[in-house]
Design brief:
The protein contains 5 helices and 7 strands. It is an alpha+beta fold.
Amino acid sequence: MAENNDIEIPLSKTKLTKLLFFSILFLAGGAWMIIANPQVSNPIFNNAFVKALAAYGSLIMGVFGIYFFSKKLFDKKPGLIINEQGIYDNSSAFRFGLVPWSDILQVYERTVQKQHFVTIGLVDPEKYISRETNIFKKKLLQVNLKSYGSPIHISTNGLKTNHKDLLNLINSCFEKYK
């Protein structure tokens, strides 16, 4: 139950629907590449290994996207809750639960291939990585930590807010509650 001072940012059904649509396109494109085996004049892109990698990668991304975005479309919980205790992110595929302000070292912006994230720098990132039971997700969190400085990154792709507003909101709450 939300308290009076909780800031709740809902999931954006419009954004999630668009992401679901693109996931379906990825799935269809990967299936088409496998079935039709299109030929192109470029020797790199006509290489059997490169085509298979693209086709199966697209297929896998499509399946995971359809699963995740379909699930989130019917999720009634807020995408993000910020309060005096910390941040609870329900917008990503990772389940960190409540991240208390005392575990947060800094909040900053990270951009990866034109995609903006609010990165939550942690005092002890391994504490959050070790909670993950799925081996594939655990490896992704370790790669995120090594490559981008933290396992926790919040995207506004599925939230009813924009990146700059979210960054400013989390930073102001961090200053207020840390």
